[in-house]
Known about the structure:
Structural class: mainly alpha
GO molecular function: transmembrane transporter activity
GO cellular component, one term: plasma membrane
Number of strands: 0
InterPro entries: EmrE-like, Small_drug/metabolite_transptr, Small_multidrug_res
Strand content: under 5%
Helix content: over 70%
Protein name: Guanidinium exporter
Membrane topology: Multi-pass membrane protein
Order of helices and strands: HHHH
Largest sheet: none
Amino acid sequence: MAWLYLLVAGVLEVGWAIGLKYTDGFTRLWPTVGTVISMILSVGFLGLALKELPVGTGYAVWTGIGTVGTVILGIALLGEPATVMRLACVGLIVAGIIGLKLSH
């Protein structure tokens, strides 16, 4: 169950990271509300996951999921560049996430 909680926490992290862009500096009410709720839920699910997982593994995987998801959605939704270097670095992060999962 801990890994499922961690996956949900990571997806919610992507939600609040992308949501920050839409808050326009926290000047837009509903995007701000959604972003803050996503932040709270993300940290809550991370806390649940860390009841069973080592903190180093859990935190690294959480931030890795958030980073990879945010980069992918930044490319898909916000027109950010999809350079070879960026995609290679995302691949390294994914490899790290997989390595941490396998080493646990």
